[in-house]
Design goal:
- This protein is about 15% helix and about 35% strand.
- By secondary structure, it is an alpha+beta fold.
- The chain has one domain.
- The longest helix is centred in the N-terminal third of the chain and has 11 residues.
- The two termini are about 15 Å apart.
């Protein structure tokens, strides 16, 4: 299962590159778990370990926080 289109993955990697790391990026993708209130708005992928993404996270409590998430499924290249 692929979570991102090639264009989305390229933008996430670009946003996570060292020269862009300190910039404030808008979300590129929205991930959620159906039937729960959990939502992730990812803005970047770690350039060293592209299975780790960063962005805003709401675990269903109504408070967003900046957090990381690791892709447990999906292809990485």
């Amino acid at each position: 299962m692929t979570l991102f289109t090639p264009e989305q993955e390229a933008k996430l990697k670009e946003n996570g590159s060292p020269e862009n790391r300190d910039k404030d990026h808008p979300p590129v993708v929205k991930l959620f778990i159906p039937g729960t209130g959990c939502t992730w708005l990812l803005s970047e992928l770690d350039p060293v370990e592209p299975r780790i993404g960063f962005g805003l996270c709401d675990l269903g409590m109504g408070n967003f926080m900046y957090h990381g998430i690791r892709r447990a499924i999906g292809k990485t290249q």
